[in-house]
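Hey, I was hoping to borrow your eyes for a little while. I've dropped the whole record in just underneath, so have a look:

——
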Amino acid sequence: MKTWKQFPENVLVLGLARSGAAAAAALLENGKKVTVNDAAATYEDTAVKELQKKGAHFVLGSHPLHVLEGKEVVVKNPGIRYDHPVVAEALKRGILVITEVELVSHLTEQPIIGITGSNGKTTTTTLVTEMLKQSHCKVKLAGNIGIAATEVAQTMQPDEKMVIELSSFQLQGIAAFRPSTAVLLNIYEAHLDYHGDLESYVNAKCQIFKNQDADDYLVYNADDPILQEKVTDAKAKKIAFSATKQLEQMGAWADDTHIYFFEEAIMALEDVVLVGQHNLENILASVAAAKLNGATNEGIQYVLKTFSGVKHRLEFVGRHKGRYVYNDSKATNTLATQKALDSFKKEIILLAGGLDRGNEFDELIPHLQNVKAMVVFGETASKLERIGKEAGVQAVAHANGVDDAVEIGFSLSDEGDILLLSPACASWDQYKTFEERGDIFVQAVHTMD
């Protein structure tokens, strides 16, 4: 385990939540003086009481600038923007501002596989972890996928590796963090309200390889022109992946029949459960990262033959009454639904609708060619009905909600059809979260048996 001798003594943790609580606990356990500032937490919260017992000082209810007095570093919650008054003042005073993931550098020297990208992070992180597990490699999962990296880092054993999902928010706040294998999946315009512009967003993503050297690996998407340019100056060994061209000398790729790693055929494409071009890219990135870290072909094959998707992300629910059912409740915008629709060649019954954010859905029209029926619900039902009719969809029906839409969807479908929940909208008009919406969908499907 690394020492903390070079890490500053006086630390402000800005924002409690999961990552803040984990960071504060790790700092306290390593002898640092910690102040936690959070506007929403109360002194009755369990996390506050536990950290107080360990010696943390708290300033709750507001964000006064005096919390910076005497501080040498700020560990901020990744979701807190850099124009936040405390963060902006810290930077003005020359105080180092980092995110919780940076502390991993001080907690473990074990190999880290770091995964980022605009889309596909969770699927790829899960695939890599499972491929290594099925290859009898010891591995722990952490990061933006739901488990604070500092919590995991403190439990790492000498023969273990960490697989960590990383957001641009986390990566913008690193100084020395260095994954032994970095994976860059893709770049799309996203989170510009946080980063300000596309260049800043891209630069934040590329922080993942800034501290790597020639002993490390950088797995990147050779089909992404932005990444192709950005990785030019990387010091790590570059391993490409591509879903469109052969890379016998460069990394992971696929043709019409097989998945390859360099010149080695790993498995037949027809045996892969996950569907869609975007998932093929995730799979190729996963194969590259897993092979570089000791995965066997048998371990990779087992995962790709059985893994049906991350929950609510084009998740294969199963075959029910002859229909192939997919839960894509995470598709809260039109881009995500476009990708889902483009993943299938069979006829689709599309279940869609939800919160009305004022946008229209005309960009979906070219992607509705294989849709023979739509079941629409929520605030956007009428808008989706309009584009369905303009696209020539045979039948468009209204439903009261997801459970009602399932019953109607089955009635409009035939054996062999795809029943797809891909709402293209947020859930908040009828459901608390997209997870709740997806769970209700899956439950309704099972009641059709």
